[in-house]
Design brief:
Layout lengths: L1 E6 L7 E3 L14 E6 L5 H11 L5 H4 L28 E3 L1 H7 L5 E4 L9 H14 L4 E5 L3 H13 L2 E7 L5 H9 L3 E5 L3 H15 L2 E2 L5 H17 L7 E5 L4 H15 L8 E7 L4 H5 L29 H10 L3 E5 L1 H13 L6 H15 L9 E5 L7 H8 L26 H8 L1
Parallel strand pairs: 5-13, 6-7, 6-9, 7-8, 10-11, 10-13, 11-12
Antiparallel strand pairs: 1-2, 1-3, 4-5
Helix pairs in contact: 3-13, 4-5, 4-8, 5-6, 8-9, 9-11, 12-13
Length: about 425
């Protein structure tokens, strides 16, 4: 297979070598994506190959990303691969969450089961492999948490130096702790995510550091595997809807690209509809999708949400995301802080749990079902992007009635589960429990 980078803008479509260190098209500034030409095995042959690889104990085949490498053949040597056995994340039925959302049945694809606890590992294994291939020494990212944890782990595994830039005071300690533990050089910048990304792009070019945010096209290639694995787990039966949170919109871009490519190869017979859910205080993509065709995204200067993983006011992948949502006949919804917090508590009652941003999916489903956009008997898969332990302070504050929104207003502990202080007295405890 021949791999190259191509400009995503339809009016440009400039092409570049797959080894070019580029994040945007030098000619028009558009986003880049990896494309492949050549002969691909037949769909049924691919399905058999991928299923057989589950029985192979070699690191490449034990990865739930690289197992599907025929769909992103950008490497010339798989010895460049850096794997922590990422992917392999489960599909979980959630009857309590389904009832809360108004559905007969709901399945979660839980990316929080990844090595560092989020979907970022699916993309980071590919981004790190490309960095090794290019003989880079340092890699960098801007992060509100999950990206930094993932990049630090994969950089450490690859022998690279990770440099992380985070908004000062705007990160969950559960996520920051991971980056510190994996040895990342961590810089807390007094600016928001979007401002820091512009800063880091200047520094990356000046210092020869490889940037591993979702603007990196190889991150998107790895995140495609989430949809491929999902379809494999469902024996290639396509759901009616795939619902996901929307932050920087890299997953929206990756999921849409994967689904279109699988349909073109005959692996699936139709596209599921994509539903992207944003937090109300950080919803520029939601606003864009309600504008006339041809409108451009208007950034939110000061995004506000407790769901820090999607607290992004100027998502770089919006041009790709709008095409993927439109191509699938999808929708974009938004959810309030209260709706996200309550949905998160309901996911917890399923014995599953997730980080706050993940719960935007169920909050959005509840609204979309109530509006009649999603049928009550629809086959729906919601993607949970991060582990329940990513933001434990949020959980404690919600259940004890201390969780405040970004404006300082206390959220209702609708489904609170407050711990109770009891004396060291078996009779009184027995009476309480009885």
């Amino acid at each position: 297979m021949h791999a190259e980078l191509i400009c995503f803008e339809r009016s440009c479509r400039a092409r570049y070598a797959i080894t070019a260190v580029l994040y945007n098209c030098p000619q028009c500034g558009g986003l880049l994506e990896a494309t492949y030409t050549g002969t691909m095995p037949a769909a049924e042959d691919l399905k058999r190959t991928w299923r057989a690889r589950r029985l192979d104990n070699s690191p490449l085949e034990q990865s739930g990303v690289w197992r599907y490498r025929e769909l992103f053949p950008f490497l010339d040597d798989y010895r460049h691969v850096v794997t922590l056995r990422e992917g392999n994340t489960p599909l979980l039925d959630a009857p309590i969450a389904a009832r809360y959302g108004g559905l007969g049945r709901l399945t979660f694809k839980h990316q929080g089961f990844n090595p560092t606890g989020s979907f970022k590992d699916n993309g980071m294994t590919c981004g790190a492999a490309q960095a090794v291939r290019l003989k880079m020494q340092r890699v960098a990212c801007v992060s509100t948490g999950n990206t930094s944890a993932s990049m630090a782990a994969y950089a450490a595994a690859a022998g690279l130096q990770p440099v992380i830039f985070i908004p000062h005071g705007n990160i969950s300690y559960g996520k920051l702790a991971q980056a510190l533990e994996y040895g990342a050089r961590t810089l807390q910048v007094e600016a928001n995510f979007d401002q820091i990304l512009a800063l880091v792009r200047v520094l990356a070019e000046r210092l020869g550091i490889y940037l591993l945010n979702s603007i990196n096209p190889f991150r998107i290639e790895g995140q495609k595997s989430i949809m491929v694995e999902l379809m494999d787990q469902r024996d290639w039966r396509v759901p009616d809807w795939v619902v996901l949170p929307g932050g920087n919109l890299g997953n929206t871009s990756a999921f849409g690209k994967a689904l279109r490519e699988m349909k073109a190869l005959g692996l699936i017979d139709r596209l599921p509809r994509l539903a992207v859910v944003q937090a109300e205080g950080s919803a520029p993509f939601y606003d864009l999708m309600r504008q006339p065709g041809g409108a451009r995204l208007r950034a939110v200067g000061h995004p506000e949400t407790l769901a820090t993983a999607i607290k992004i006011g100027d998502p770089v992948s919006w041009p790709k995301a709008i095409e993927e949502v439109t191509a699938s006949g999808g929708v974009v919804e938004k959810a309030t802080e209260q709706e996200i917090a309550d949905a998160k508590a309901q996911i917890g009652l399923c014995g599953i749990g997730c980080e706050p941003a993940s719960a935007a999916t169920l909050a959005g489903i509840r609204k979309l079902v109530a509006a009649g956009t999603i049928d009550r008997d629809a086959d729906v898969v919601a993607v949970l992007t991060g582990n329940v332990l990513k933001d434990p302070d949020y959980i404690y504050r919600y259940h004890t009635g201390q969780l405040k929104d970004p404006h300082g207003e206390t959220l209702a502990s609708t489904y609170g589960n407050q711990p109770i202080v009891v004396p060291n007295d078996p009779d009184r405890i027995a009476a309480l429990l009885g």
